[in-house]
Specification:
7-stranded mixed beta sheet; mainly beta; 124 residues; 0% helix; single chain
């Protein structure tokens, strides 16, 4: 099995910063691309950022220049540094991972995994 656990959410004033973390654990052979998504109340889940296994990043226009996505492959962890936060950044943030999981008889199975989410609230 593979588990993703996010942390670092909270309440912050507009203009403030937060750093989200996501740790991946379990029967992991390889972690491929990872991503952050968010879902605000009454809205659909939206993509925020992606990081490849090599560290290349892409960001949604709404967060570009304010958010920085990084990964520590040795720790199987990723981080989302969020700066200059705005009230519209308020949402539950979810970590996503494309993982090659170790299966039976030395096989691997590729799967898409999600964390439970962490709440980010930005007050005006």
């Amino acid at each position: 099995q593979v588990q993703l656990v996010e942390s670092g959410g909270g309440l912050v004033q507009a203009g403030g910063s937060l750093r989200l973390s996501c740790a991946v654990s379990g029967s992991i052979f390889r972690i491929n691309a990872m991503g952050w998504y968010r879902q605000a109340p009454g809205k659909q889940r939206e993509w925020v950022a992606t990081i490849t296994s090599g560290g290349s990043t892409n960001y949604a226009d709404s967060v570009k220049g304010r958010f920085t996505f990084s990964r520590d492959n040795a720790k199987n962890a990723v981080y989302l540094q969020m700066m200059s936060l705005k009230p519209e950044d308020t949402a539950v943030y979810y970590c996503n991972a494309d993982v090659d999981r170790i299966g039976s008889f030395y096989t691997t199975t590729r799967g898409d995994y999600w964390g439970q989410g962490t709440q980010v609230t930005v007050s005006s």
